[in-house]
Give the backbone structure.
Amino acid sequence: MLADFIETIVKILVVVVVLLTGFAYMTWFERRVIARLQVRIGPNRVGPEGLLQPLADGVKLFFKEDIIPAEADKALYLLAPMLAVVPSLLAAAVLPFGPDVTLFGRTIHLYIADINIALLYFLGLGSLGVYSVVLAGWASNNKYALLGGLRASAQMISYELAMGLSVLAVVMLTGSFSLVDIVEAQAGGRWFVLMQPLAFIIFVITMLAETKRAPFDLPEAEQELVAGFHTEYSGMKFALFYMGEYIGMIVISGVAVSLFLGGWQGPFAEQIPLLGVLYFFLKVAVFMFFFVWMRATLPRLRYDRLMQLGWKVLLPLSLANVVVTALAVVARDTGFFGLLG
Amino acid sequence: MSGAELFFYVLAVLAITSALAMIFTPRPVYAVLFMVVNFVAVALLYLQLEAPFLAAVQVLVYAGAIMVLFLFVVMLMGPAPAPLWEHIPAQRPLALLFAVGLLGALATAIRKGAFTPLTGTMSSAIATAGGQSQALAEHLYNRYLLPFELTSLILLVGIVGAVVLARLPRQKNPTTD
Amino acid sequence: MREYAVLGAFLLVGIVLPAAVVIGGWLLGPKRANPVKNSTYECGLETVGETWIQFKVQYYVYALIFVIFDIEVVYLYPWAVAYNRLGLFALVEALIFAGILVAGLFYAWRKGALAWF
């Protein structure tokens, strides 16, 4: 019992520390990669290759004044940045980041919790993520912030449907909402991206929109809305929005990897568990690079186009994908193709 | 008091206070947020009753969709605090009447209802179906077929209502939007 | 239920972390407020008029259609997870269910409710 307790606490702390480090170094990674893609050098002065830059930024932000606009709604203004972090952090709990490990004679599962509604838990937390942006925009009592917040929330709800439906196709193939089961079902290189390429593409597009990343970064389109919903924020509250965004990117990439790219599965991962953890982090890192690459390559969508893409392209496509998957599963189970041949 | 009882009472108090706060706050945005707290507390109560699917759906639909809609409506209305006059004559006495009626109906339902604790048969039904969501699906898609299909018609009415009420500007050529 | 208790512990950590960050920033940062600094930021211009005004109805229409389709997707979750056991009959049921709502989406589309103007 005590051992269980200690194991849980250690796992929670490790996951939180990894996510926070990931957040800090993702800011460095993004600035360096974007700089390279734009033929610049990027931050390279603070520490070797600029590696201490995130630390310096963090320290700086701690010593910045926390400005609360006189016109703001104080309570909600304080609540909004905290709400940005909580859902994206909590979603990490259901990610399996490696196979079972035996340590000190105990079998340790490399996930915080395996619940049988893991995907619904993830989608539910995603739907709560809307509150931080809409409340930040409203509580600031700033026109840019309010417009940014409203745009962001309308965008997030529009893409949530397509995301839910693309996940549904994978659920049909496995008969489970648990990410642990879904990763197990992809053993031996049977990654779901091979069976569900369309669902994978839809999921990747919607995950860019859900994390409000380029080319869907309209809520903070700097040319028209200054910094969008967090225009008025400064100091650590400002940092919390970035913390929420980057942790969200890492976690949603982890979900994408678990759903479509076999999670921690890979050659010899069963024999050497650490290799599984490495595969998982490498796959997530590919997604992180993809996020930055998209930002450097694609121009921002116009807002009406963005809404049209969500409602008139992705929603019908993802629904069609579910229907085709359903037909294929029935055809397989009833041996329909066998009858033909 | 056991841990489970303590958990229940904390959540029950949270649910009731947030509901009261929702009614009594004069600021619409806060009312919406108190309602979200209420829904989350109720979802946690479902979880305690070992209905995780219901808990997740409660958060997903009520907190994640319907309350976002409410928040939009509140913001669309602008900053005006709730009007102090009432549109329907005798609104308060009527409301009281309906509230008492609903309470009576609920009390009767609870008193007559067969609230048996989770017995072996139910848990085994869930086990044979392979999980709670699966058991729910078997009921929904076999026994309650007609209500399920009717739900989609009700939702369709919702879409039509939204489109009609929005009073969209007439478009010259609706296919090329 | 054990797994949910673990999630509860994680939730506590998840709440303490941002709270600690905000408190840390509040303790370490300077507090030199003045009316100009605390005024609404609008790129240096004086802000004109109310911020909390009426917004266009489009946001509301989208939110309403979203709620309806969200409920549809929620109905499809148990169907998808039990699909292997439900088989052909359930497929037909779900097709009718989704078909009616797709008709609704098509109606809203034709009426221009999905256009941003």
Remarks:
- Helices of chain C lie at 2-28, 58-81, 83-86, 88-110.
- The two ends of chain C are 49 Å apart (CA to CA).
- The domain at 2-110 of chain C is CATH 1.20.58.1610 (Methane Monooxygenase Hydroxylase; Chain G, domain 1).
